[in-house]
């Protein structure tokens, strides 16, 4: 079912407003969800709507509170509220702190799933800010050499000002993610081989086995595991979040940010970054039909395409969210 973004915005706004979420929070949340879906991050888009509505029905959305606010750092307690909105609040705080300080560190605890972090890193990069986001989640990932899930998928996201679009490096430390497993389940697909274990510790391509009693494997073996472990500490020990959080409970977030002109002038940063990007784009591709892309470039292209022609929603997901298919304007 193909729908326009305007149509989808109206329908999602109605769902969240009907669930009791305030108008401002609804507008922010819908923007984030639409961007995720439009930019190809389906793992953080519409598939997250029903769990959010369930959360609002059972727990509501408690406004967070700032536990610490200093010249260059701040700590936020999400108080169990929607993680997308927790990350949004922390992103705004980073921007605020960097108006008066060249460096800033912001942390959060008490969040649910923290959302498509690339969205927030991109927003900062468009303001001339370099950011490093670290987030965690409940255990879905096995440490290297283990058969059970102990760590989260623990993504790292780096946002860099660039032209014409920011450079956004956004990746989980596992070979696949919980969200990708959810999408595979919705679409009736198997996982690639070598990315997950079942509850017995045997390799599996069944997404249900992977996330229900099984474990996801780190990308790059010991390298992804080491990075995941470091992020687990950065998002918990620095923020006071649970060391090993339960499902959707007390996730942690850490942001380290700086202005692009911290060490050299902004013009120097822009010139050197442009030189690096030109060199990368000029690299001879293995396949002439597939040019070398900058991280974030594919998502930007999909976003432009979605603005022009809308997005396709799987019929099963459409019906779960909106009921029987109708003509979407």
TrEMBL record:
<dbReference type="InterPro" id="IPR003767">
    <property type="entry name" value="Malate/L-lactate_DH-like"/>
</dbReference>
<dbReference type="InterPro" id="IPR043144">
    <property type="entry name" value="Mal/L-sulf/L-lact_DH-like_ah"/>
</dbReference>
<dbReference type="InterPro" id="IPR036111">
    <property type="entry name" value="Mal/L-sulfo/L-lacto_DH-like_sf"/>
</dbReference>
<dbReference type="Pfam" id="PF02615">
    <property type="entry name" value="Ldh_2"/>
</dbReference>
<protein>
    <recommendedName>
        <fullName>Lactate dehydrogenase</fullName>
    </recommendedName>
</protein>
<dbReference type="InterPro" id="IPR043143">
    <property type="entry name" value="Mal/L-sulf/L-lact_DH-like_NADP"/>
</dbReference>
<comment type="similarity">
    <text>Belongs to the LDH2/MDH2 oxidoreductase family.</text>
</comment>
<dbReference type="GO" id="GO:0016491">
    <property type="term" value="F:oxidoreductase activity"/>
</dbReference>
<keyword id="KW-0560">Oxidoreductase</keyword>
């Amino acid at each position: 079912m193909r729908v326009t973004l305007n149509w989808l915005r109206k329908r999602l706004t109605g769902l969240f407003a009907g669930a009791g979420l305030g108008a401002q929070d609804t507008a922010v949340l819908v923007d984030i969800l639409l961007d995720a879906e439009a930019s190809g991050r389906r793992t953080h888009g519409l598939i997250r709507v029903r769990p959010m509505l369930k959360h609002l029905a059972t727990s509501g959305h408690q406004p967070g509170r700032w536990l610490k606010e200093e010249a260059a750092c701040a700590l936020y307690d999400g108080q169990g509220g929607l993680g997308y909105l927790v990350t949004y609040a922390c992103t705004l705080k980073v921007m605020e702190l960097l108006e008066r300080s060249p460096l800033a560190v912001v942390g959060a605890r008490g969040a649910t799933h923290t959302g498509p972090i690339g969205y927030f890193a991109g927003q900062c990069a468009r303001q001339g800010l370099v950011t490093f986001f670290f987030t965690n989640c409940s255990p879905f990932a096995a440490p290297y050499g283990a058969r059970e899930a102990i760590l989260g998928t623990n993504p790292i996201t780096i946002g860099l000002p660039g032209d014409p679009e920011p450079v956004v490096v956004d990746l989980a430390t596992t070979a696949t993610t919980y969200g990708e497993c959810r999408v595979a389940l919705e679409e009736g697909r198997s996982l690639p081989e070598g990315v997950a274990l079942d509850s017995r510790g045997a390799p599996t391509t069944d997404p249900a086995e992977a996330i229900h009693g099984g474990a996801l494997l780190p990308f790059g073996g010991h390298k992804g595991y080491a990075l995941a472990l470091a992020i687990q500490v950065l998002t918990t020990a620095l923020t006071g979040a649970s060391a090993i959080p339960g499902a959707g409970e007390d996730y942690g977030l850490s942001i380290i940010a700086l202005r692009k002109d911290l060490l050299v002038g902004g013009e120097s940063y822009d010139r050197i970054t442009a030189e690096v990007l030109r060199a990368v784009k000029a690299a001879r591709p293995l396949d002439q039909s597939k040019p070398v892309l900058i991280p974030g470039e594919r998502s930007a292209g999909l976003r432009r395409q979605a603005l022009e022609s809308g997005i396709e929603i799987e019929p099963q997901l459409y019906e779960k969210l909106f009921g029987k298919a109708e003509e979407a304007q």
